[in-house]
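Sulfotransferase family protein
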Amino acid sequence: MGNFFCIIPNTGVAFVAISKNAVTFLKKVAYYNGSREKVWEKGFTSVHDLIGYSDGSPYLVPVDKMQEFENKHGVYTKFAVWRDPIERIVSTYKLFCLDGEFRRYFHFLGLVGGTSFDRFVDFLEFEWEKKDPLWQDEHIRRQVDYYNPSEVNYIVNIHNLHSFLTDFNVPFKSEISNKTLSSFELTNEKHLTRIRQYYKADYQIECNYEKPD
C-alpha cells in the first residue's frame, strides 16, 4: 500500500495512515465520523476494507497530492502518530507471529506458529534490504518513509492520541485496537541495537503535541 492521508469526515482533520501506529483505530474513527448512522466498526480487518486501499477511496489522499486536495476542498489539520520503533516492531511480531492474526505475506513466509524473534529478525533484514520503501511490508517501513514532518501540522505520540482527538473535537469511541495477547519482551541487546540503527531517522522525529491521555 502507498502513502496516504486518511480524511476524518466532518472534522477538518486528516492523519497519515501508518501501519502499527494506531491506524486501525484511526480508520474506525474516520468511518465512524463518515457514516450517517455513526457506526463504530468492530473487528480488525473489516474497517480496512471499508476505508479502502487506494486513492479511489473517498477517505484516502496520496501524501504527495494532499496540497492539491486542500486547494480544492479547504485546509485540513494534518497529523501523524509517532510510535517508538522498537515498540512498533515488537507489536508487529506479537500480532502476526505469536497471536497468529492472519496476514497472507507472513503466512507465505512461514512467520506463524510461535516463530522465534531470531527468525523474525531475518525477515526484517530481508525487508530492510529492499531499495524502495514502498516495496517493504508496511508494518516494517520506517515512519519517515511515510511522510515528511513538514507535511503535517502535528506529530502525536501514540500514547497522547486520545487527548489530541479530544482537543480537536474529533468524536471517537475508546478502544485499544489490535491489542496483542501474547507475552513477549525483547531483551536481546544485539537485536535492540540493530533495530535502533535501522530506525535511527524515526527516533529523530520530534513530537510537537504533548498531553498524556
